[in-house]
């Protein structure tokens, strides 16, 4: 491959970067738009949105009850029901006596925007016309037993996780028309985003009953906090489903807008169902040793539903049983999700380059532990990447130097064999073998660097750990663009310098103009992308310039080039 062909290949890679960035911008323009959520003080939250009336029935492929049961008695709307506030070290939450629903949950420590540090993300919310709530109850083959439309009693209107306490329980009680006693308990744990839900039923009726527990997520989608500009993000259902009864599982996700044509249903042991959005998720995790049915579909009135219905439990007169489930309501923290439930870490999706992105984040996280600064971690990661690729870079410049040295002989071969391309290529391969250099060596650093660039892009885009992360001076959010465009301009200058150091090679005028415009074009595109990514590429260029200077001096001493 000649030096001109090397340049053409570099041009193709650069155009690939531009096309990739254009694709991201197009996705941003045409992706479904979500309304950002701003935390409002609880006292000023306004009226709650009315709950959905989607009450699941017992799955037909699970055991049916042994006798008929009456439908639960209708109760007042959620807006009129008592609202119980809960305060822990991780959450500010609201539970409604209407159904015992978890209707609002604010994530402490996650501001909506960097400029508004006191306004935290409301991941669940039913105020100001929004709806993302957790509903639960008991159903059966003959109809509902106790649902999220029934009115519970609460002993108090507020609960606080006290100093020294590790857990906080919020119990609610309901007695149906048949004398069956139901107790629903929400259990919060210090330092955890996992919430435990238990539903205890005592059958005081004269007839036996078979009950199925259900938990559902009712969501009319809205964005939890500000979304990065010019970057597409996924919002939809995630399901950890069994593959054809084989005992192995896979992660499946469906965008909300596709659920009407692609509803989800799976009956299996284990697994979980979740609603995903950028940086955050809400997952329902039933007992992993029981059989249950997961469903995801559009709601009957608004939004979308993600449901879990458990297997039936036969209750004789006087018998009781407690149904349990867990919820994860919080950020996609990579170091914690895998320990909570199998496959939950897959909700943080790096795409097809996940195998590369995960070790990149592992390195980043290690450097962050060392330095306490994500920007410094990105710089150290860049040094590691360039160090790993040093031999490839050296081979690139050595190959270019030899191509320049033997350019007259290559031209002579072209003139000698004219249009006989087979003999010309054979002669050139003999020359390469004799002089011990590989014309393709210049391609490898570009081929390696491009996947690293894309993988790091997804790490910066998807990792909640880097959300609103500080670096230095005015760069106080590595996941957002540089507000003053300084880093993109520095990147453009460094790219221009690197091009000039590569030396002048004969090009046609059009190629030369495109190459000269490339730093300007990429500067404009990088102005709209996370500054952490621009920092990586700028530092990479600086290291590349230093490597190029050193390698060139080394080649001069070997007589392969000259000043």
Question: Would you give an account of this structure?
Answer:
This protein is an alpha+beta fold. It has helices at about 5-30, 335-340, 355-370, 375-390, 390-405, 405-415, 420-435, 445-460, 485-500, 510-525, 530-555, and strands spanning about 85, 90-95, 100-115, 115-125, 130-140, 145, 155, 160, 165-175, 180-190, 195-200, 210-220, 235-240, 250-255, 265-270, 270-275, 280-285, 290-300, 305-310, 315, 320-330. Helix 5 (about 390-405) crosses helix 11 (about 530-555) and helix 9 (about 485-500) packs parallel to helix 11 (about 530-555).
Write the layout of secondary structure elements.
Blueprint: H1 3-30, E1 83-87, E2 91-96, E3 102-113, E4 116-124, E5 131-140, E6 143-146, E7 153-154, E8 158-160, E9 167-175, E10 181-189, E11 194-202, E12 209-220, E13 236-242, E14 249-255, E15 264-269, E16 272-277, E17 280-285, E18 291-298, E19 304-310, E20 313-315, E21 320-331, H2 334-340, H3 354-371, H4 374-388, H5 390-405, H6 407-417, H7 421-435, H8 444-462, H9 486-501, H10 509-526, H11 531-557
Parallel strand pairs: 1-8
Antiparallel strand pairs: 1-2, 2-3, 3-4, 5-6, 5-12, 7-9, 9-10, 10-11, 11-21, 12-19, 12-20, 13-14, 13-16, 15-18, 16-17, 17-21, 18-19
Helix pairs in contact: 1-10, 3-4, 3-8, 4-11, 5-11, 6-7, 9-10, 9-11
């Amino acid at each position: 491959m000649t030096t001109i062909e090397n340049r053409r290949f570099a041009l193709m890679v650069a155009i690939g970067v531009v096309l990739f960035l254009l694709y991201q911008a197009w996705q941003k323009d045409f992706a479904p738009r979500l309304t950002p959520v701003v935390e409002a003080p609880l006292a000023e939250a306004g009226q709650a949105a009315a709950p959905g009336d989607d009450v699941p029935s017992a799955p037909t492929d699970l055991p049916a009850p042994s006798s008929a049961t009456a439908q639960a008695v209708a109760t007042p709307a959620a807006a009129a029901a008592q609202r119980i506030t809960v305060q822990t070290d991780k959450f500010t939450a609201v539970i409604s006596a209407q159904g015992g629903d978890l209707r609002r949950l604010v994530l402490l420590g996650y501001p909506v925007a960097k400029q508004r540090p006191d306004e935290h993300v409301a991941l669940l919310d039913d105020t100001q016309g929004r709806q993302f709530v957790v509903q639960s109850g008991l159903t059966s083959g003959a109809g509902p037993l106790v649902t999220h439309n029934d009115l519970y009693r609460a002993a108090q209107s507020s609960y606080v996780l006290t100093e020294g306490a590790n857990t906080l329980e919020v119990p609610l009680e309901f007695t149906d028309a048949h004398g069956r006693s139901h107790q629903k308990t929400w259990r919060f744990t210090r330092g955890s985003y996992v919430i435990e839900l238990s539903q205890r039923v005592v059958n005081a009726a004269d007839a036996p009953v078979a009950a199925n527990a259900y938990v559902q997520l009712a969501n009319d989608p809205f964005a939890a906090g500000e979304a990065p500009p010019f970057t597409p993000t996924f919002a939809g259902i995630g399901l950890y489903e069994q593959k054809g009864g084989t005992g192995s599982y896979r992660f499946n996700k469906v965008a909300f807008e596709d659920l009407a044509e692609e509803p989800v249903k799976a009956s299996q042991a284990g697994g979980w169902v979740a609603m995903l959005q950028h940086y955050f998720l809400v997952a329902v995790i039933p007992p992993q040793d029981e059989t249950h049915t997961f469903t995801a579909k559009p709601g009957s009135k608004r939004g979308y539903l993600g449901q879990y219905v458990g297997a039936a439990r036969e209750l004789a007169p006087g018998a009781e049983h407690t149904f349990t489930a867990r919820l994860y309501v919080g950020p996609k923290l990579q170091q914690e999700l895998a320990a909570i439930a199998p496959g939950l870490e897959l909700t943080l999706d790096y795409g097809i380059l996940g195998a590369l992105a995960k070790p990149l984040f592992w390195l980043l996280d290690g450097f962050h532990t060392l330095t306490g600064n994500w920007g410094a971690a990105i710089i150290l990661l860049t040094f590691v990447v360039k160090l790993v690729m040093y031999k490839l870079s050296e081979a690139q410049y050595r190959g270019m130097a030899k191509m320049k040295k033997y350019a007259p002989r290559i031209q002579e071969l072209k003139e000698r064999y004219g249009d006989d391309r087979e003999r010309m290529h054979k002669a050139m391969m003999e020359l390469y073998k004799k002089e011990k250099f590989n014309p393709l060596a210049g391609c490898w650093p570009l081929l390696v660097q491009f996947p690293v660039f894309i993988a790091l892009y997804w790490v910066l885009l998807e990792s909640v750990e880097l959300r609103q992360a500080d670096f230095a001076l005015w760069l106080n959010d590595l996941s957002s663009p540089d507000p003053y465009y300084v880093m993109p301009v520095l990147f453009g200058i460094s790219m221009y310098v690197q091009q000039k150091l590569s030396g002048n090679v004969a090009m046609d005028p059009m190629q030369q103009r495109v190459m000269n415009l490339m730093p300007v074009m990429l500067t404009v595109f990088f102005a709209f992308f996370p500054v952490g990514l621009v920092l990586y590429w700028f530092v990479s260029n600086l290291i590349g310039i230093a490597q190029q200077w050193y390698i060139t001096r080394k080649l001069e001493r070997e007589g392969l080039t000259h000043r």
